[in-house]
Write a structure and sequence with these properties.
Radius of gyration: 17 Å
Number of helices: 6
Number of strands: 7
Helix content: 25-40%
Structural class: alpha/beta
Shape: globular
Strand content: 15-25%
Length: 202
């Protein structure tokens, strides 16, 4: 039973994921991995998100073999293409122009590893997001804030890009970086976190 009550490790350096997990009432520590986030040729956005999350989780699980490890990876996909984190401001502007006045998908891959290193479950959650039309000046002003630099698809829905969004179909928190309802159910399903320790869904 001791294994079941050990503190969860979040295998991510993302402050957004940590904040969402904290809001769930989950006690956890952070141990990020340096696994590269590079899609394989022909890999679908969902498959890539799941694999990237599993790769991160496996790496952290090797560092923290006695703990439960939760890992996630979020990607933005439009027209079947994966938009990762922009390499520079020019690429960030190109990404935002591509997202303007159309719909895209945000997929977060989630993987949970048990003490001992076995991956007990992995999946992806998909949310559709629609942007309104954006002017070049709006895009340039947003990129100049620096916020897009470390965000998949070059935007943060909870930040300066909020006014760009005209509709969200599915989990909002998934777009931020962690599908809260699905993760809460995942942790409870495997006993990684005592159900009584988590706040209920909203």
């Amino acid at each position: 039973m001791g294994e079941q009550t050990r503190m969860l490790v979040l295998g991510s350096a993302s402050p957004r994921r940590a904040a969402l997990l904290r809001e769930m009432g989950v006690a956890f520590t952070v141990c990020a991995s340096d696994v590269p986030e590079t899609p394989a040729p022909g890999e679908s956005p969902a498959d890539f998100a799941i694999r990237a999350a599993a790769d991160k989780g496996a790496a952290v699980s090797r560092l923290r073999p006695g703990a439960w490890v939760l890992a996630a990876d979020t990607v933005v996909a439009v027209g079947g293409d994966i938009l990762g984190k922009p390499r520079d401001e020019a690429e960030a502007r190109r990404m935002l122009r591509r997202l303007a006045d159309c719909e895209h998908e945000v997929l977060t891959g989630v993987a949970l590893f048990a003490p001992g290193g076995a991956c007990v479950e992995r999946f992806a959650v998909r949310t559709r997001v629609g942007f309104r039309a954006l002017s070049d000046d709006e895009i340039a002003a947003y990129v100049a804030t620096g916020e897009p630099a470390d965000k998949a698809g070059a935007y943060a829905i909870q930040g300066g890009a909020a006014p760009f969004v005209r509709r969200v179909e599915g989990s909002y928190s998934n777009v931020v970086g962690l599908p809260v309802d699905e993760v809460r159910a995942l942790l409870a399903r495997h006993g990684a976190v005592p159900a009584a320790a988590m706040t209920s869904g909203s």
